[in-house]
């Protein structure tokens, strides 16, 4: 009985998801001055994570304690 219920619920959910997926933003929402330009792909070697720390992409080097002093 549970599998029939969850099967119907799954099919109904997918149907609603597909119907709502066709809704588009209005012209007022699309044509704004402060809209994010998603087509501009800027690749930086330094990325900032959510906690504010910076992640630098590149090769890793081993640091020896003796050469540090």
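-> sequence recovered:
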């Amino acid at each position: 009985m549970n599998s029939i219920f969850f099967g119907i619920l799954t099919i109904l959910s997918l149907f609603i998801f597909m119907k709502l997926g066709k809704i588009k933003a209005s012209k007022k929402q699309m044509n704004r001055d402060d809209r994010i330009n998603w087509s501009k792909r800027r690749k930086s070697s330094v990325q900032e994570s959510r906690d504010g720390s910076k992640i630098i992409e590149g090769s890793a080097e081993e640091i020896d304690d003796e050469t540090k002093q």
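The beta strands are 46-48, 54-56.
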